[in-house]
Specification:
Layout: E1 4-8, E2 12-20, H1 25-42, E3 52-55, E4 69-76, E5 91-94, E6 98-105, H2 112-125, E7 134-140, E8 146-154
Antiparallel strand pairs: 1-6, 2-4, 2-5, 3-4, 3-7, 6-8, 7-8
């Protein structure tokens, strides 16, 4: 597994933040992505990247705090809407440029905690401060196989 330390560009986002039971994550992800895409289409906001799931409480050991599970579903768009807040709890924001440890992961979900721990150790070994958040983008590689891009922001 290769870990890269990248400067991420500023992003314009549609956001849906939820506090949910862990058992509802899969359904909430599908529903939230559909709601964000529908909002972008309704507002005629061109989508500019892959949607993500942002976990807002990650321990230094790489564990995602699930009591409660605080998640941010996001969709990059080319421009921000003129009104905010939007319908059904959706909001928007522009992020600034940020730093993150980044890896593309192909493997079992059961191994993600180890992946997170290795990434957090790398951040600390580089002399940076982990911000206790993670962002996962669910993609496909060139052969159509599942690929998870993981970004762990740091200072």
């Amino acid at each position: 597994m290769e870990i890269n330390y990248e400067t991420l560009p500023a992003r314009k986002l549609l956001i849906l933040a939820l506090e949910i039971p862990e058992a509802e994550l899969a359904g909430a992800t599908a529903d939230s992505f559909a709601r964000l895409i529908a909002a972008a289409e309704e507002l005629q906001l061109p989508i500019s990247g892959w949607p993500y799931v942002g976990y807002q409480k990650v321990s230094l050991e790489g564990q995602i705090d699930t009591k409660p599970l605080l998640v941010e579903f996001g969709l990059p768009v080319e421009r921000l809407p003129e009104t905010d807040p939007l319908s059904e709890g959706i909001s928007s924001r522009q992020t600034g440029e940020s730093k993150a440890a980044v890896t593309d992961y192909r493997g079992e979900d059961s191994e993600l905690e180890l992946v997170y721990r290795l990434m957090i150790e790398g951040i600390r070994d580089e002399g940076h401060q982990f911000l206790h958040k993670s962002y996962e983008y669910y993609l496909e590689d060139e052969q159509g196989q599942p690929l998870t891009r993981i970004e762990l922001p740091y200072l």
